[in-house]
Structures
1.
Amino acid sequence: MSKIAAILWKDLLSEFRSKEMVISMMVFSLMVAVIFNFSFPPGSEFIKDAASGILWMTFIFASLLGMGRSFVYEVDKGCMQGLMLAPVDRIVIYVAKLLLNLIFILIVESITLPLFSIFFKLDIWTDLGAIALVIFVSSLGFAVIGTLFSAIAVNTKTREVMLPILHFPISIPVIICAVQATSAIFQGEAWSVIWGWTRLIIMFDVVFFIVAFWTFEFIIEE
Amino acid sequence: MSLEKTKNPWVTLLGATLFIAMSVNLYLIFQFAPTERSMGHVQRIFYFHVPSAWVAFLAFGVVFVASILYLWKRDRKYNMVANSAAEIGVMFATLVLVTGPIWARPVWNTWWEWTPRLTLFLILWFIYIAYLMLRQFVDNEERSARFCAVFGIFGFVDVPIVYMSIRLWRDIHPSPVIAGGESSGMHPDIRVTFFFSLFVFTLLFIFMLIQRLRLEKSVVAVSDLKKEAALAA
């Protein structure tokens, strides 16, 4: 536990000093939201139905942007060897990076969401608990597979391109369920409907955390 | 690894059997099987479409098992099997995605419909295209084998979850009424033709896997020889 915290703290500290990642993810996600807004006719009613889709596209793009960087510093600056020489299990490195990515994503989402609700005139406050739950479990799902795939993608020739290509097809269940759950919340549907979607996302998180837990050590050995 | 004996009498025999079986299969499909009453001749594509889908699933299953075995035993041959099966699987999945719309256009009156099965297949296709791309974009052979094995496991584990989420997604949206298709009672001659075609396609898969593996072995042998030559020079 303290080992995870140590790695996490080192990364948080370096981010806190540069603020590079969170700020670029923030600006990027806001821009995506604004650009999506232009894909509809002005004052269109469609936008209400499409809002949860746009929200999640924004979150996904921003998350991928952030996660893509999570191993780049380690590999480019030669810190990966140091990290691997540290007397910790490989899985500790995975969990620390996973938490780091999750924290970044959640920070960006919690700032984007209120702005999004202003831009698209959505009421996020009445069901804030449900929205927070859906956002948390979905972001966890993105981070669970994204952390592992970014460790793969950083070793390929086409780093930035490879991560979304690996990530999107696998994360489709989370994307479908997150969009549907959020749109059910915005339309004031019953909790049972929202829970039906959320349950699937939680299942995805658990299954892929187990798979990642088992396979991560094969990714960074050598 | 040395270049193995390239001629194997069993493989030749399998090839000959396959040639005869495929000819019989074509006869069954185009002559023996009755023309379906409401869909007409276009229904015959079903004898290619469904077996292709079956072979694609089978191939991706082989990728999954070979990936686990590779991570466990670290034997190069499992990596070769996974790579060969993935390529064949993508080819058959492409066939499914091509033959499906050809049938759907006259019968459903649309090229594409976001039904659970179609959507699942499209996603499956993307997963294994990503798999093959990953293989291309990693230089080191041993590393690419490890990465692909991990991704092969992720891809296959994802399939049931994708299917569940798409099912739920379509159940909530009102969907246009779609004919029951293959589940509705089959004429006995149609059933015979169908199961024979399924058998032939499975045989074709085994044959292609063996041939693709032989090719893969030659590729590996050549690259090993090149490395040796480079070291000697």
2.
Amino acid sequence: MASSMIGSRVERTEDKKFITGKGRYTADITLHGQTYAFFIRSPHARAKIKKVDISKALAAPGVVTILTGQDIIKDKIGGLIAGWKIVSKDGTDMKLPAHPPLAHDQVNYVGDHVAVVIAESLEEARNAAELVNVDYKVLTAVVNTASAMTSEAIYEGIDKNLCFDWELGDKAKTEEAFAKADRIVHLKLNNNRLVPNAMEPRASIGEYNSSTDDLTLYTTSQNPHLTRLVISAFNGVHPEHKFRVVAPDVGGGFGSKIYPYAEDVVIAYAAKKIGRPVKWVCERTDSFLSDCHGRDHVTEAELAVRKDGIVTGLRVNTIANLGGYGSLFATVTPTYLYAPLIVGLYNIPAAYCNVKAVFTNTAPVDAYRGAGRPEATYLIERIMDQAANEMGMDRAEFRKKNFITAFPHQQCLVHNIDSGDYHAHFNKALELADYKGFEKRKADSAAKGKLRGIGFSTYIEACGIAPSSVVMSIGAGVGLWESAEVRFNATGNISVFTGAHSHGQGHATTFAQIVADKLGVPMANIDLVHGDTDKGPFGMGTYGSRSLAVGGSAISKACDKIIDKGKRVAAHMLESTPEQIDFKDGEFIVRNSNKKKTIGEIAFACYLPGTYGEVKSPLPAGVEPGLKETAFYDPINFSFPSGSHVCEVEIDQDTGVTKVVKYSCVDDFGTLINPMIVEGQVHGGLAQGIGQALYENAYYDETGQLVTASYMDYAMPRADHFPEFKIEYTCTPATSNPLGVKGCGEAGAIASPPAVMNAVIDAIGTDISMPATSEKVWQALRTKVKSAKKAA
Amino acid sequence: MKSFNYHSASTVAEATGLASKASAYLSGGMTMIPSMKMRLASYKDVIDVKKIKQLHGIKVSSKSVTIGAATKHAEVAQSKEIKKAIPALCTLAGKIGDAQVRNCGTLGGSIANNDPTACYPSACLALNAIIHTSERKIEAAKFFTGMFETALKKGELIVAVEFSIPEKSYYVKFPNPASRYAMVGVFVAKHKAGVQVAVTGAKAGIYREKAIEQALDKNFSEKALDNIIIDSSDLNSDIHASADYRASLIISSAKQAVAHCK
């Protein structure tokens, strides 16, 4: 049974609790003597705080305490940090404003944290919050990404609102490519700002035991150890060894729950200060206002092309909006996660990318499903279409001409791509999508009065972040290895501890499949433990499609150590040598004999290493009792999933409504552990990516008010917006990890926006920005008709 | 949500007897409860009217369909009797919100709230509905007085709504991509006396689009609307749709409605 576990569509073991309402989320936790917190947030995008008057509110019924920015100063609570240092092209370090968990002198976006009211009930906290009087001096807000550098400076000492002006690539070589180009293709792009919208809003509960000095924070986190490290080392709330962070069931993150937020710091600090548990659960509108948003790039790109259709250079200038502060991974997202991938999966010999990151009076922007790679993919895939169209070439053939074909491939920017076969997945996708039949379908649509378009997105991304020595050399404040512990219990079942965190990814199933496969133990005897700093070893958490490639590899490595020890014990028990022992399907066998021990017997013997029945002192000299191994895995390279997505849309000319009528994709995620879970990941990613292309947009008005602060105005995709997705795979295993896996969590969101937009543009024959709402498409068609009339 | 006294009335008299300046009637609660949770509204007394028998039931005569105020959208959508008399009402009810909303929200609640983007007011106006209340009968044309405003007096309770049966009618909704309320909703009803076209979602309140009515009176066909120009000067304009786009949607929705009229 064992070897069949990899690649098997095992049902998700975690689903039973979720679909029967038995999940245990942070908001489900109620502690004895618990108090309730309500945050007072800035209603202004930019204002000086003249005074916070809490006197009336303090006297309101049920109020336990009210904390403000002054308390943060008095108790020396540190600010929130940006954990990745970017150096500008002039050699200076990035510039960051202070980011206190409760503002004391200035608020910098609508939703910024001003004070917290803690009361016996949530209603009392909210009632008292209405009595807190904050005297603001409202200042002019900086909202627009493109004009932020020419607007008034938000912070003293940060000229032009510029965090950094960074570059990547060989500028001179790129200029040369452009000088020699037969054609230069230009494109301006906006990558629209998105709200992550995890199904479960953020929540935190702090609990402090003054007799033991233990502080616990239950929180909605994708990486509890990192949260503990940051709140301990940088915010200085409590020492790491006396501080436990638990991320129980978490209902989706998409990146937005990577970072410790102001609320986490304040709740942990408040619980310690008042000596009672403090619970905070975010409401949806506060979630819209204060969860880190995603994307928000303004880009100008140019492609240098030879007349035979070979791309020779790419030049990109991007302005990336960071929002009001520098969030934890905000600075790496539009730099190292973005720029190295602007060349896509094409063999482009010269490229240069300049990124200017700006502060504005909007919610902080950080990693959101794909983080940098969707922005890169949108850019290259849109400009490849533009180039093919301008040159009158078939868009599919134009791509094929420029694919990388030999591996490993050292691209001109950063990455050394270990494996892939781009023609394989593109050809398969064209067949799956029936590209040959498109013209007929287009004619059928035309007969109904509708416009039909087809769009491609052939993408690559970098996952499995990341080799620690590499990332730390380019500014990362942490290593990006992962940990695992495989602990046999005496009765032969196994507890597996991982530093990764599952908030929808299905780790309990996928990781158990790896262990079942490696150790030959039934899935039912394997339990996955994660999300509690008191249980497993320090882990780096889940983001960047890294859990399987890095965390799964750590588990695999720990299993190898178990097998090694098992061989030594088995050899001793079977009067052989470890070199003579083979391990297969859960059994240690003396080669060319029928002498064997099951792994369960070995585990039992390791825990009861004395004379026991027929077993006599099973452990050889120098071997410790117990059967438990820990492994830390630091990858040797990123992994590089790639794929080809083909989207077909039909557009109603009267209303401008775009319907995705066909969507086919073929992805190369390397080895698949559980294809059913992978499919689910692709579906979710596609929903978010199509959502970005057609519906979603976080819109701030000119005063910095978030107009789309609820589902009344923020348009989310729904199931009835989608056709049945056709999903297939090709496989070139990754060489950078022992499992051969590449990562699949973000691919759908990375690949689909350009596939959809290229299809829309193909249908209407004119450029349009994301999201391609019905009104925008209607306007574009109307403008086209008008200009056609004029020309006639 | 601020705390309040909850009452469940079993008769109209009991409900109106409990009403005060600081009370509100609760039917499906699809708008009222979120408003209370967001502290946009708070009441001393909330009087639940769902259990009042008189507010339930569907009666069809040769001239009209009378629907109890506490009838849920899902009940209207699935009613065989209504489908025979005014199928467009079933279509309209079946497009409100989502399945959960349709199984909680009620006809009376919808028109009492008079959300300028709600669907039901358009049917009331196009079908010359008479609103039966605890005190009187009000014609639809006089009932909807402004954005979230109606002719209802404090404590007055809607008991039933009587829709006149047209020769044919249809409702087309162009949903807002976020809220799925009507960005534009057009109810076309062809009565013996003439065509009535009510538009929701496009202005500060429900209204009749006379230009379309006149064109359809002359010639009840899609073509008749080809050259109609809707005055967009007082149409809503927001991040989802400009006034011009709404004007265009009114025409395209009206055309669809005419095409589907039955």
